[in-house]
Structure formats: structure tokens, C-alpha cells
Amino acid sequence: MSENTFDMDLIQTLGPELTVFAGLLLIMIVPNLGNGKFRIPGTQIELPWFLGGTRYKAVSSPRLPGLLAVLTMLLALIQVIWYLIDSSSVSEQVTSESGYEILKVNMFSRLFEGIFFAALLLAALASLDRLPTGSVKSDDIDVLFNNRRQADFYILMLTSALGMSVVALAQDMFVLFIGLELASFSTYVLVAFHKETRAGSEGGAKYFIVGSVASAVGLYGLSMLYLWAGSLQFDVLAETWAANGANSLSMMALGFVLVGFAFKISAAPFHFAAPDAYSGANSPVAGVLATASKAMGMLGLMRVLLLITIPDATEDGSAVWIGLLGVMAAVTMTWGNIAALGSENPKRMLAYSSVAHAGYMLAALTAIGAWNWGLVENSGNAKDVVVAALLFHMVVLVFFKLGAFLVLGLLEMEGGASRLSSLSGLGKREPLIAVAMFLFMISLAGVPPMAGFLSKLLVIMGIVEVATGTGSLDSLLDAHWVWWLALLMVLNSAISMFYYLRVGVVMYFHEPEEGRQGPLASGVSIRLAIAICAIGTVAFGLVGGELIDLCRDAAQSLG
What are the angstrom distances between the C-alpha of 362 and each of 48, 311, 358? Predict the structure, then answer.
């Protein structure tokens, strides 16, 4: 459809994005409504303009921006889910007047939007109890400060959601870059939002500096790609790559572009800012970085490596490129788990765990590339199997990874969670919260029957199927070398058991710290978010068949 055809079809196609945009406007306008007036020049006539002045009582609550953000994200998520389960859903394109495809809505893009909106919804819900709100009975200055603080936080949340949705729908590298930067700059500020703390300001500064450098390198790569192909459209880049093959300019440009995506997924060696950013941000924001932001980076990698770079199987460059990606996957997963072993800060431990999970996803991407680039034979539909497994892993990761950060967020409400000993005695203080945290830990470790076990199993089986062409272990001697990545995933999962189960030991076998013997803070919304994450962790591990089928349909619509 043309961009100037603003009809009901366009509204329906971009419904979730328009909902998020409308929510942004509401958060900017509604909390500022008051009895403000302006005088007509040269007269004594005053007319109301409803902005400024004394705020109306109905909109003066500091919790209003958060409630608006939660409602906005919920409506957007419902629209995405409706599209995914509607059997009549079809692919839709938004094109420019010259015929260039800018955005594309299909099962693949909508599933990623579901990941983004679900993670941000849970984080926004949990933040209703996390940010100081003061009291509406306090003086006007206090109410004004807290109202603006809340509004700023949730405006950044929704701006990040809007940027991520643009990345999901983009069919042009420049549009994708705009969406990536819109989301990234929002997360930079969210990381440093608690600037009054040293960890927050330090983590935000490091994350911004490293992220800006990575974005600059990626933008330079985009300019080189444009010089090489004359366009940044995915289909034009893919056709040019297939017709002319790779050369030094295109390979160098691609390497620069991938630096930006590697930073977003915290892949080694671009992960060094992640531990400081995760530990400096409040826990719901750190959970968004570990789930939605990581999925956004992985989406960019999949678009570039699987849609654009399809070199001829006879070229040596394809094997070299797959080899480099495999080495990065192996180093990332191993380094992440080894670094997490020695961490005594729970948030830094989960940050390094997130690095390890990036390695697992890169291993799956390596296998997909090996199939896509014709480096393995007789693999059937193995590509769709691995893509579906990767999508399933990113979906369920929202529940157990974000849930673990939300438990730490509950601990932060009583004074902090920067030490592993903060979890001491949690089994006695809050039995249900401790059970939820233990479920998240064993799911991250890949213990059955949790969702994390099923997701890792699907990824490993998919990699083996690509390597052997049959999925059978009998032919491993003649298999492609990517099956070693599956074996390395198993070994790294065994290593991760130590630091994940250590959390359980601390919660159930250590005595609470002095001054932390009573129950935790009674935050209703954050406890509700934790409960949703715990239910999803168990449910998708036991009855994840429907979600797997949905991911398979999304994988087949990759484009």
C-alpha cells in the first residue's frame, strides 16, 4: 500500500505501532492537564488552554503515567497476539510512492513485536512499585517532581517499544538503523535513570559510550553497503550479493554493520559494557536489556546474515564467514559462563549469563547460515527447524530471564541486591518468591521440565539436524563441524549449573542478613509480574507445543 493511502487497512496493519504512539502522546499530555490560561494580547480576556497551571486532581497522581504505559503496552500486545492466532492473517507491506518497500508485517515480524511488547509490559508493570512516587497529599513541588519523573521513565519505555517495532518491521537497512537507534538511546537513558547512584551513572555512561561507538561503526558500514549496491533495501542487497558475490568492500561493510548488532546482543568481545550497565540499571530495565534488546540485536543479525548474504556455495568466503561466526559463538558462550562463575553480584552474574545465552543463539545462527549457504547437504527443512527453535528460545527467555531480574528488583525495594548474600534466607522470608526464583534459575540452567530446557533442547537438536542432515547421532563422524557447537552448548549448560544452583543454596540454606529477617516489600504489581513469569516458565516447558507451532509458522515467513 502507498504511504499516502491512510485508510483502514493501513491503520490495521500498523495498529500496534499506532497504539504505542498514541500512548506516548497521552503520557506527554494527560499528566500536564490543568487550569492554565492565556491572555489575549491587548485585552483582559483570559482563555483556558488546559496545559499548566494547577493540575486537575484526576491527573495529578504520580502513578498515572505508569498506568497509561501499562495499558498502552497491553493493548499493543493484544493486537499482536490477535494477528498471530488469526488464521486469516496475511503479509502486508508499507511502500513509498516510488515503490520501495519500507515496512513489512508478517508472522515473523509480529512474533518479534510480541517479544518486545511482552518484555516491556512486564517491566512497566513491575516498575509501578519500583519508582518512588511520593504522595499526592504532599506539597505541589513534590507532586510535580514525582509526576514528571514517572512520565519521563515511561515515555522512554514506550519510545524504546516504538523503536523496537520499527526494527521488527523494517525492510530497509537505514530504516532498521533508525529504529535501532531510537530504541538504543532510550535504553541508554533508562540505564542511567537513577543518576543519583554511582552504579547508575557509571553504568549508563559506559553503556552510552560503547554503544555510540558501535552505532557509529555500524553506520559507516551502512554507507559502504550503499556505495557497493546503490541501495539499502534488503531485497536489492540480496540480489546484488547473489549476482556479484562478495568482494572486499561488501565484506568490510558487512563486518562494520555486524559490530552494532553484536553489541546489542552482548556477544564477545563487544560485551564489556553489559555487566556495568545491568548492575547500574534498576532490575526491570536490566531485564529488558537481557530479553527485548537482545532479541532486537538478534533480529538484525538474522535479517543481514540470512536474507542478504547468500554467497555462492563454491566461494571460499562463505566457509570463512561461517567459521568466524562459529568461533564467536563458542567464545561468547564459554566466556559468559566462566565469568559468571566468579561473580558475587547477582545482576552481574545474570549479565554474564545473558552473554552465554547470546553464544547459544549465535550457535543456532551459525547452523542456519551453514544450511542457507549450501555448506551442508541433505538437510531438508533443517533451516526452519533451527529458526523456529531460536524464536522459541527468545520468546520463553522473556519469562525466566526477566523474572529473575524482577525478583532482584523486589529485593532492591528494601535496600539493594548487589550481593549474592542479599538472597540469603529468602526461602524462609518469602517462600513463594523463593520458589519462583528457583524456577527461573533451573530454567536458565536448562533443567527439565522448564521452558529453558525445551528451548535449549530444540536448538541443540536443530543444530545436529543441520550438521548430519538427518538429526541422527549415527552420522556424526561424517557431519559438518557445526555439530561441535551443539556439544559445546551441552558442556556450557553443565558449567552454568554451578552458579545457577548456588542461588538456590543461598536462598534455602543460608540465614538472612542482619536487618533483613522480615518479609519483603509488599509491591502488588511487581509480584504480579513475577507470578506471570513463573507461570510462563512452567507452562511453556510442559505444554509448549502451540507456541512451537507458532514459531515454526513465523520461521517459514522469514523475510
Answer: 58, 19, 6
pLDDT at residue 405, as a whole number: 94
**pLDDT of the residue at 4:** 47
CA torsion through residues 139, 144, 149, 155, sign: positive
In the numeric block, the cell 484526576 is attached to: 58
* Per-residue cell: 317: 568466503
- State whether residue 144 is helix, strand or coil: helix
C-alpha span between 489 and 469 (Å, rounded): 19
Q: What amino acid occupies position 302?
A: M
Residues of the chain with pLDDT under 50: 1-6, 133-145, 311-314, 316, 375, 378
- Burial of residue 366 (number of CB atoms within 10 Å: 0-12, 13-18, 19+): buried
User: Can you read off the three cell numbers belonging to residue 554?
Assistant: 513465523
Q: DSSP code of 49? A: -
Q: Give the model's pLDDT for residue 77.
A: 95
- For residue 12, the one-letter residue type is Q
Return left, alpha or beta for 510; rule: phi > 0 is left, psi -120 to 50 is alpha, else beta: beta
| pLDDT given for residue 511 in this prediction | 86
d(CA 69, CA 367): 39
Q: What is the pLDDT of residue 143?
A: 46
Please check whether residue 482 is in contact with residue 373, taking contact to mean a CB–CB distance below 8 angstroms: no
- The candidate with the shortest Cα–Cα distance to 254, out of 175, 211, 308, is 308
Alpha-carbon gap, residue 239 to 307, rounded angstroms = 10
**Alpha-carbon dihedral sign for residues 496, 499, 503, 508:** positive
pLDDT digit string (tens) for 283-296?
A: 899 999 999 999 99
Cis peptide before 269 (omega within 30 of 0): yes
Q: Which residues pair with 33 in a beta bridge?
A: 51
Residues 479 and 505: beta-carbon distance below 8 Å: no
Q: How wide is the angle at C-alpha 96 spanned by C-alphas 92 and 97, nearest 5°?
A: 120
Coil, helix or strand at residue 233: strand
The whole-number pLDDT of residue 134 equals: 44
What are the extents of the domains in the chain? 311-559
Residue 478 has what pLDDT?
A: 61
Provide the pLDDT for residue 349: 93
Mapping DSSP onto H, E and C, the string for 155-176 reads HHHHHHHHHHHHHHHECEHHHH
pLDDT score recorded for residue 145? 46
Say if CB 404 and CB 484 are below 8 A apart: no
DSSP per-residue codes, 353-390:
HHHHHHHHHHHHHHHHHHHHTT-SSS-TTHHHHHHHHH
Q: Are 4 and 97 in contact (CB under 8 A)?
A: yes
pLDDT 10s digits, 260-309 = 888 888 888 888 888 889 988 888 999 999 999 999 999 988 888 887 87
* Contact predicate 160/243, CB 8 Å: no
- Distance (Å, rounded) from C-alpha 527 to C-alpha 128? 11
